[in-house]
Amino acid sequence: MSKRDYYEVLGVGKSADKGEIKKAYKKLAMKYHPDRTQGDKSLEEKFKEIQEAYEVLTDPQKRAAYDQYGHAGVDPNRGAGGFGGGNADFGDIFGDVFGDIFGGGRGGGRSRARQGSDLRYNLDMSLEEAVRGKEVEIRVPTLVECDPCNGSGAKKGSSPTTCPTCKGAGQVQMRQGFFAVQQTCPTCSGKGKIISDPCTSCRGQGRVEKTKTLSVKVPAGVDTGDRIRLSGEGEAGESGAPAGDLYVQVNVRDHKIFTREGNNLYCEVPLGFTTAALGGEIEVPTLDGKVKLKVTPETQTGKLFRLRSKGVKSVRSGSVGDLLCRVVIETPVNLSSKQKELLEEFETSINGQAAKHRPKEKGFFDGVKKFFDDLTN
Known about the structure:
Layout: H1 6-10, H2 18-32, H3 34-37, H4 41-57, H5 60-69, H6 90-102, E1 119-125, H7 127-132, E2 134-145, E3 161-162, E4 171-176, E5 179-184, E6 193-194, E7 207-218, E8 227-230, E9 246-252, E10 259-261, E11 264-272, H8 273-278, E12 280-286, E13 289-295, E14 304-307, E15 323-330, H9 337-350, H10 354-357, H11 359-376
Parallel strand pairs: 1-9, 11-15
Antiparallel strand pairs: 2-7, 3-6, 4-5, 8-9, 10-11, 12-13, 14-15
Helix pairs in contact: 2-4
């Protein structure tokens, strides 16, 4: 009986790359594997056909020969270039495709010591410190490399030995029928080495707990959420592996006067009734000291006055933001009899001229009157 086209067997096109072929094979292998088909001979033959097609199409030389000569190009009777007639080790193929699930590919890889974990330190700063930048010292509890054993975990004068169970691979292979599953070596816990005489300082761990004091240069312009990375200042790695990094997370405390939005600063400035009406000059705060602000006549509550380049210098672009002052007109309180009398005289002087002197007030009440008129009509 003639063999089916290998591309047809796997359900892929002739231009399919290796990744597409593996994906198709994985799907079919899971469906037709003998452990799932419960001894059905016809499905077992189908599985062998799938396996055969996969091995040919994932081998560049065999695939090229198959594309040029068809099944004859990979016939085992044609010599070394031919297909091996079903003698392939399915465990190896399965490990290649499903290695991400079962912890390794063909034959397993040698164990690698793990890099140390990254650490985070939360740094609280005032707005002034964040805007100007500062060098601070921080204390960070972490794991560092053990000095007496130089991180090996073995007592000075001795050294770790290769694990006799996994031969240093850190993993052992368990076979069940066609399946080849890799597991962490139970003897060495995946490290690949055995410490017979552990270091008394770290008890064979290669790392000890220590609180490190570090100097951190915080650049000017940082804001809440910014991170400063200190490379290699995290936890020490296992068995001499590289250390992780330390990330200093900035948090800027709320300010009593200023609110920051990006590179701009905002503040509320109380403004006297007379100055708001007639205009004048007032003093307003900035991070560099007080400055004069010219208030235009007839200023209303909520008006923003912009002081250019009095904000924050960007830590990234170097551009400087502005200070925006929002004025809030303050109604006079604790008035004397004379002051009240003067205000009453003032009110009398503009009585009947609300449209001229208080246009917003007149516009509001005109709108209210129209609203109720519309309801009654």
